[in-house]
Specification:
By secondary structure, the chain is α+β, with helices and mostly antiparallel strands. 36% of the residues lie in helices and 17% in strands. The protein has 4 helices and 6 strands; from the N terminus they run ααααββββββ. 28% of the residues are buried.
């Protein structure tokens, strides 16, 4: 008995060896059970989504926000370019790209959130004019912005489109609801699709 006490004093961890093994085995079993439950839930969720990131939850919202940010940046680029060329009606995609090369400004359609379609209506006598910008989110929502010198900025959206082409508007848009058949416009902020 005295030897057992002396051995325990010299090697105190030996008495806990059995308990440590039991705790380790139990924790591994619990971890395995949780992983099996998680995989079972994930694999049988009934989801019919395509593999890939483009349709993952939150991607549509993220690309909508990215498209809106591209349009806001585009308005700033248009204003900077307009100051050097004589008004918004004299701005074009090439000048806007020179102002901000981080965004692709095009005269044609936008098919993603970082490509901005540009349409310009020249002003009279080389002054003024208006500009419309459009960018497409991954869910098919086209986000638009219209601005003219001395007028309020108008924001628009249209849903379910394969691409977005900015319309050339000589005057302020007409307010309306967002739909797949028409652009819904409102002054001051982006509408809810």
């Amino acid at each position: 008995m005295r030897r057992d006490r002396q051995a325990e004093q010299l090697h105190p961890h030996r008495s806990d060896a059995g308990l440590s093994m039991v705790v380790t085995v139990l924790s591994l079993m619990i971890t395995a059970l949780l992983v099996a439950l998680l995989l079972g839930t994930t694999l049988t969720s009934g989801s019919k989504s395509k593999a890939g990131v483009s349709n993952a939850p939150g991607v549509a919202l993220a690309t909508s926000l990215q498209a809106q940010q591209s349009l806001s940046t585009g308005l700033s680029s248009a204003a900077a370019a307009a100051a050097t060329v004589g008004g918004l009606g004299s701005v074009d995609a090439a000048r806007m790209t020179a102002e901000n090369p981080s965004i692709s400004f095009v005269a044609g359609p936008s098919t993603d959130a970082t490509t901005v379609s540009v349409a310009v209506v020249p002003g009279s006598g080389g002054e003024g004019g208006s500009i419309t910008l459009a960018a497409r989110a991954s869910d098919g929502t086209c986000w638009l912005v219209w601005r003219s010198a001395g007028a309020a900025t108008w924001y628009g959206a249209q849903t379910d489109l394969p691409s977005c082409t900015a319309p050339a508007l000589a005057s302020a848009p007409t307010p309306g609801p967002v739909s797949s058949s028409a652009i819904g416009w409102q002054p001051g902020s982006f509408p809810q699709p």
